[in-house]
Amino acid sequence: MPETKTAPAVPSDHIMAVYRRTPLGFVRGEGARLFGTDGETYLDCLAGIAVNALGHSHPKLVKVLKEQGEKLWHVSNIFTIPEQEALATFLSQVTFAEETFFTNSGAEAIECAIKAARKYHWANGQPERVDIIGFEGSFHGRTLAAVNASGNQDYLEGFGPPMPGFVHLPYGDLDALRAAVGPTTAAILLEPVQGEGGARSWPVEGLTEIRKLCDETGTLLVYDEIQCGLGRTGKLFAYEWAENAEPDIMTIAKALGGGFPVGACLTTAKAGKGMTVGSHGSTYGGNPLAMAVGLASMEELVKPELLDHVVQLNGYFNQQLSGLRERYPDVVEEIRGKGLLIGIKLKTPNREFMQHARDNQLLIAGGGDNCVRLLPPLVLTVEEASEAVAKLEASCEAARALLPEKTGA
Question: Which domains does the chain show, CATH number per domain?
Answer without folding.
Answer: 26-48+305-404 (3.90.1150.10), 72-301 (3.40.640.10)
